[in-house]
Write a structure and sequence with these properties.
This protein is 47% helix and 27% strand. By secondary structure, the chain is α+β, with helices and mostly antiparallel strands.
């Protein structure tokens, strides 16, 4: 199981590194999630191997060489890429899917908590780990076709009307359901470099042919909307006091 073995080894290395770092509650929670993932994947691989063994044994007892060869080929494919044949009982791939979902959720939570703590470097590191983890999955190619998969980071410099200077803006996609998405955004809406004029908030929206379209609410500022117009993200903030801000930026995708 070359591909899954590489994935498992990578997770264990990350776990060891986490245990050697200074105390970090976010990293500790992710460490526990990785251990749980490794345990679940061992059970998943054991269930798959037992299913292959049972199927091959039955084919041998029936003297069905064609089926024996087929099962051997399917087993080799599983060991090389992690892909299972269509005939596999649904409960087996569901084990892996549940384990993948749980670990991805743990990574997404780590990203969010680091962003809240304003540790952007740590958040970026978690995103890299998550992308590496996704690359080991049999459905990685399907993920790659999506322009905005979970874990996408968009960042840019925003120009507000009536407010001089560039202001940083960051979006992280944390959930996807069809064309819908949820995420977190970090907005600098005051004088550039003023830490008191920054906000982290949840956003909810959809993926359109042009890009992202979403809404959110910034505590103390009000409603914020964003939508793509000719490759530029146009952002409008309607303050609770009736005032508005609007601006646009070109994102770079990390």
């Amino acid at each position: 199981m070359i591909r899954y073995a590489v994935a498992l080894a990578g997770l264990l290395v990350a776990c060891c590194a986490a245990s050697c770092d200074d105390k970090d509650p976010v990293k500790d929670k992710l460490f526990a999630a990785k251990k749980a993932y490794d345990a679940e994947m061992k059970l998943y691989r054991k269930a798959a191997e037992e299913w292959f063994d049972k199927r091959e044994g039955a084919a041998r007892n029936d003297g069905n060489k064609k089926l024996v060869d087929q099962v051997k080929a399917e087993r080799a494919t599983f060991e090389g890429s992690g892909a299972l044949p269509k005939a596999v009982p649904a409960a087996i791939p569901q084990q892996a899917a549940a384990a993948n979902k749980a670990l991805e959720a743990a990574y997404q939570l780590a990203v969010k908590e680091y962003l809240i703590a304003k540790d952007d470097a740590a958040a970026a590191g978690m995103e890299i780990e998550l992308k590496q983890f996704r690359a080991t999955r049999p459905d990685a190619k399907a993920d790659a076709k999506d322009a905005y998969p979970v874990g996408t980071i968009l960042s840019g410099q925003l120009r507000w009307n009536g407010d001089p200077g560039d202001h940083s803006y960051l979006i992280v996609v944390t959930e996807r359901t069809g064309k819908g998405f949820r995420g977190v955004a970090r907005l600098d809406y005051g004088p550039s470099g003023d830490p008191k004029r920054k906000a982290l908030y949840d956003i909810d929206g959809e993926i359109t042919p042009q890009g992202l379209k979403y809404k959110g609410e910034v505590p103390g500022l009000g409603q914020v909307e964003g939508k793509w117009v000719k490759d530029v993200l146009q952002i409008t903030a309607s303050a609770d006091n009736g005032g508005t801000l609007s601006g646009g930026l070109r994102f770079k995708k990390n």
